[in-house]
Fold this protein.
Amino acid sequence: MAKENDSSWKPTFIVKPDGGSQGDGIYLIKDSSDFRMLGSAHNKPAVIQEYIVKPLLIDKLKFDIRLYVLVKSLEPLEIYIAREGLSRFCTEPYQEPSQKNLHQVFMHLTNYSLNIHSGNFIHSDSMNTGSKRTFSSILYRLSSKGIDIKKVWSDIISLVIKTVIALAPELKVYYQADIPAGKPGPTCFQILGFDILLMKNLKPVLLEVNANPSMRIEHEQEVAPGVFEYVPSAVDEEVKVGVIRDTLRLVDPTPRKATNNQ
C-alpha cells in the first residue's frame, strides 16, 4: 500500500523468524512476493522490519550496539542502563542492499553468531579493534571527530526509557500472575539486551530487545586444524562481568562484612 502511494519508495525488508535467536533464519527481501513460506501449512509467524539502508559505518563496516538494561522494579518503575556495551561488526564492507547482494549476510547482518564463521572475523584482545569492540571505544572515536557524544547518549537513553515504558504494562501482568498481591514472594529483576543501530545521521534505532541476552565471556576458536577450544574474550569479559557485578550490587546493596576466606 505504501509503495502504491509513493512509487519512488524502494524499501528493503528484513525477515526474522518469531522466537528465533543468534541470527538463525534471518534474510532480506525487496518485495513481498519474496517472502519464504516457513514451516508446515500453518506458517510460522515472522517479524518483518524495514531495513535501515543508511547506517553509520566505521572502517566501511556496518555495526550494531548491544546495551544492557536492568529492570530492577516495576512498581515503582526503576531501570538502569549499563554505561558500557558491545559493538558488533559485520565482516564485509557495507553496500546498500540490492538484488545482487541481499544474500550476503556478512555484509548486512551484525549477529556475532553469524560473523564468527566469516574468514574475515577478527578476534582481538584490544577494546577498540577487531570484529567485537566496546561501545565506549566507538564513542571515543566519534568524539575525536567532533561529534557530540552526550547527544548520542541522551538519544539512546530516551529510546530505552520509552521502550521499557511500552513494555511495562505487559510485564506487570506476568509479574502479578506469578506473585499474587498480598502474598510474600521473591522480588524479581531482569537484564534486557537492547540491540541498537546508529543511522548515518547518528539517530539511534531500536532493532530488538532480547529477554535472555548471552552472558558468555568466551568464544570457540580453532587452535589447530580441526581442534577447537573455548578461549576467553577480553571484550566480553570487560563488558559482561561489569554488568553482572553492578546488577548484584544494585539488587542487593546491603554491605557485607568480608571474611578471611571470602
